């Protein structure tokens, strides 16, 4: 950012009339003495002769950005290591102190560089690597807020746009640490998901087995009821031994079905001699 710029005479070699753009601050001087700040629009400034009486200086009122780059040494326990920090400072002229911006500092950017380097050096030596970015932004902002308002400027925002270690080995180590932390968090989330999946699968299996048991119980009850009705008939040829045998055969084939439909089922050869089912089940 350049300092205040003198304005050439507007008309007929004099500054009797001035036009101020919307994005500019204009300071009016008479005989070299500051008189007032001019807002946007047309202003009649009084008699002037070739700019000898009335002088005008202009500065932008837009938000400006200046980047400062500094190399800061880490604490003594990390001797020989440096942090390269690039800090972007966004600032503009304070409307309540705009006249100070014209006459207080010769070069605002040099002033910003000085305080940024000072704040970064202190922060790097006293802050852990994990929280260094936030600490640098906070400390630089607070440091500039102490000095820039007196010069007629206000700080809008401070951003750490570049942050890396001068030693490539340390930079790689930092990346590995960050990667390891992310992997730990990912492992925790994955383990929690697997736990939920296992619990839900167990609950579903328990419900399925409960329903299967209820179905088998109803099936057995229906078989027994049918056999009882047949046994109660006068012309029935069934007796207690026949009913027992029928139940055993039914249970036998039900068992064979369960064996062959299992997830790890294999072919099983079983003898089918006379009374074989009853003998195998008893």
From TrEMBL:
Residues 19-194 form the Band domain. Transmembrane segments: none annotated. InterPro entries: Band7/mec-2_domain, Band_7. It comes from the Eukaryota. Pfam families: Band_7. PANTHER family: STOMATIN-LIKE PROTEIN 2, MITOCHONDRIAL. This is Band 7 domain-containing protein. It comes from Alexandrium catenella. The lineage of its organism: Eukaryota, Sar, Alveolata, Dinophyceae, Gonyaulacales.
């Amino acid at each position: 950012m350049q300092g205040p710029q003198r304005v050439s005479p507007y008309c007929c070699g004099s500054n009797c009339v001035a036009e101020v753009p919307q994005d500019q601050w204009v300071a009016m001087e008479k005989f070299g003495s500051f008189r007032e700040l001019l807002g946007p629009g047309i202003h009649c400034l009084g008699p002037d002769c070739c700019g000898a009486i009335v002088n005008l200086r202009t500065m932008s009122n837009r938000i400006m950005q200046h980047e400062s780059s500094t190399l800061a040494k880490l604490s003594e326990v990390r001797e020989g290591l440096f942090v390269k920090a690039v800090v972007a400072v966004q600032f503009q002229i304070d409307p309540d102190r705009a006249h100070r911006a014209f006459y207080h500092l010769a070069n605002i950017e040099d002033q910003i560089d000085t305080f940024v380097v000072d704040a970064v050096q202190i922060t790097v030596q006293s802050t852990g690597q994990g929280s260094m970015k936030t600490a640098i932004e906070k400390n630089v902002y607070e440091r500039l807020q102490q000095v820039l308002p007196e010069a007629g400027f206000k700080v809008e925002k401070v951003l750490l746009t570049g942050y890396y270690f001068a030693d490539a080995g340390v930079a790689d180590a930092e990346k590995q640490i960050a990667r390891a932390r992310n992997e730990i968090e990912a492992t925790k989330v994955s383990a929690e998901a697997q736990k939920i999946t296992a619990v839900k699968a167990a609950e579903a299996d328990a419900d399925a087995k409960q329903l299967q048991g209820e179905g088998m119980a109803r099936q057995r009850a229906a078989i027994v009821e049918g056999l009882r009705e047949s046994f109660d008939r006068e012309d029935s040829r069934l007796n207690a031994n026949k009913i027992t045998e029928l139940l055993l055969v039914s249970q036998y084939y039900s068992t064979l079905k369960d064996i062959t439909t299992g997830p790890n089922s294999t072919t099983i050869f079983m003898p089918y001699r006379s009374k074989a089912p009853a003998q195998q089940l008893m």
